[in-house]
């Protein structure tokens, strides 16, 4: 039910009228007028590349990666610090994911995250509070493997003892490409339950 519209605006100063319709009727606030503004000068030195930035369709449950090339220290537009770059990722449920960002060399950062369910992911990359060129962008996590071939090796107890560490054994050896992801939601407390998924030879 979520649609993403991509387009390239014409020359600077152009005035555009956009109409958004559903079932041949204008939606709320449609039509609306837009004016094409000049591109931000300080964002152009940044480059974002990698599978997660170019493929758009990514396999769910597997790590997605992209890289950010920022101006090196001493060059125009240089941030000078990793802390100046902010990567924000929101999943299909609207909740934020925490990506892992590592500096691989001066001015180059590798970003990794796991799209743990199918659907759209909104990725925003900002420097100094401003979007870099191409940000935000939309990724789509698609099914992979054969989930119907995954087996639970034991029944999950309906009653859990407070303070006791519990585990669930899963056999995914015949499920093909993909990984097991798990989410446990607490109905009495805000947020999800902390957990860890460990893989060994197709068992989780």
UniProtKB/TrEMBL annotation:
InterPro entries: Filamin, Filamin/ABP280_repeat-like, Filamin/ABP280_rpt, Ig-like_fold, Ig_E-set. One of its GO terms (molecular function) is actin filament binding. Keywords: Repeat. The keyword Repeat applies. SMART domains: IG_FLMN. One of its GO terms (biological process) is actin cytoskeleton organization. Filamin repeats lie at residues 38-141. The keyword Transmembrane does not apply. Coiled coil: none annotated. Belongs to the filamin family. This is Uncharacterized protein.
């Amino acid at each position: 039910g979520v649609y993403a519209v991509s387009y390239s605006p014409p020359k600077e100063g152009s005035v555009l009228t956009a109409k958004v319709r559903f079932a041949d009727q204008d939606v709320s606030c449609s039509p609306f007028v837009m004016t094409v503004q000049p591109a931000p000068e300080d964002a152009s030195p940044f480059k974002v590349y990698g599978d997660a930035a170019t493929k758009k369709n990514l396999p769910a449950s597997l790590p997605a990666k992209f890289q950010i090339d920022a101006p090196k220290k001493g060059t125009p537009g240089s941030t000078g610090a990793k802390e100046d770059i902010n990567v924000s990722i929101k999943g299909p449920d609207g909740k934020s994911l925490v990506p892992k960002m590592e500096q691989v060399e001066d001015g180059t950062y590798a970003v990794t995250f796991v799209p743990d369910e199918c659907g759209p992911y909104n990725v925003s990359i900002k420097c100094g509070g401003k979007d870099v060129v191409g940000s935000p962008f939309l990724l789509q996590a698609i099914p992979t493997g054969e989930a119907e071939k995954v087996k639970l090796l034991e029944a999950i107890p309906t009653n859990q003892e407070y303070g006791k560490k519990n585990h669930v054994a899963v056999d995914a050896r015949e499920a093909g490409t993909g990984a097991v992801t798990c989410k446990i939601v607490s109905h009495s407390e805000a947020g999800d339950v902390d957990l860890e998924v460990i893989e060994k030879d197709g068992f989780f």
